[in-house]
Amino acid sequence: MNDSSPRAVRVAGLVKRYGDRTAVDGLSLEVTQGEVFGLLGPNGAGKTTTIETIVGLRSATEGKVEVLGLDPVTDRTELRRSVGIQPQQAALFDHLTVTELLRLWRSFYQDGAEVDDVIVELGLQECRTIRIGRLSGGQRQRVLVAASLISRPRLLVLDEPATGLDPNARQELWQAIRNHRGVDRTVLMSTHSMEEAESLCDRVAIVDHGRVIACGTPESLVRQHCASHDVTFTVAAPGAVDGLRALPSVKGVETETEQGRIRVRVQTGDPDATLRAVLDRVPGAQELGTRSPGLDGVFRKLTGRQYENAA
Ligand code: ATP
User: Which residue, judged by its Cα, is nearest atom 16 of ligand 1?
Assistant: First the structure.
C-alpha cells in the first residue's frame, strides 16, 4: 500500500456499544482504493457491526467513519449509488425467478452490469428460471452476491460471502470478486476462512474483541509474526527423531501416534535445512511436508488462542 493512495474507507477509533455490551472497541482501519480488503476474526469479534457502520446501517457510538469521502449516515442516499451491499435474505422476493430478481435489482441503477453476465460469472446459468424460494442455500447465497455486483459498485461490501458454498461455487465467487476489483473498484469483505483471506485479499485486518490486532498483506503478517514453519513427516519409532531436537534452527518437536505410525511436527526457522536433516538422519521417514503457519499462526501468536476455539 502506498501512503498517498486514495482511501475508499477510513475508520478511526470506532466504538459501537449495544447497551452495556461493547461490540467494537476503538477499531481503526483504512481501505485503499482498488484493493480487496478482508476483515478476519472469530465469532463475535465485531466484523459485522463494523461493516454495518461503514455502509451506514448503524451509527457509531464514538469515532469517525468516512466512505468514498462521504459520511455513511448523513450521506447515505448519495453513497447508495456507489456502494454495493450483499442484501439480507429477508429482502429477497421468494416468488421471483433468479433472472427476474436480478433484473429488478438492476433497474434500481443507471449504470451497471448485464444481468446475463453476472449470472454466468456466478455460475447461476442453471438457476435462471428457478424461483428464489426454491433455491438451495448455496444458490441463494450466490444470488445475494450477484445482486450486490449488479451495479458494478465502486465499493463492494460482502459479509462472509462464501458461507455455504461448495468448493466449485466458492472458486467462481472468488473469481467474480477478482474480476470486479479494479483501479476504482474496491472490495471490503469479512470472512472466517484463512484460505479465502490468503487467496483473495490484498490486505487483511485481523479483528479480535472489537479491535484490529494486526493489519497488512497476508504474507507480510506471516513474515512479521511467525518466524517458524512446520516440517511434518511420519516414522515407525519415536526415538528416530531425537537427533533433530539439537539442530540450531529447530524450536520444538511434537509427536502424535496415528494408526500405528508416529506423526511428527518439527517447528523450525529453516525448513529447507530441517528437511535435509530429516532425510539424512531419520531412517524410514515418510509423508514429508512443510507448512507455513499462515494467518492461523499469526492469530495464535498474537492472542495465544487457536483461531477455531477463539469465539
Ligand atoms: P460473526 O463472525 O459471528 O458474524 P462478528 O465478528 O460479525 O461475528 P458482530 O456480529 O459484529 O461480530 O458482533 C459483535 C458483538 O456484538 C457480539 O458480542 C454480538 O453478540 C454483539 N451484538 C451484535 N449485534 C448486536 C445487537 N443488535 N444487540 C446487541 N448485541 C449485539
Answer: 23
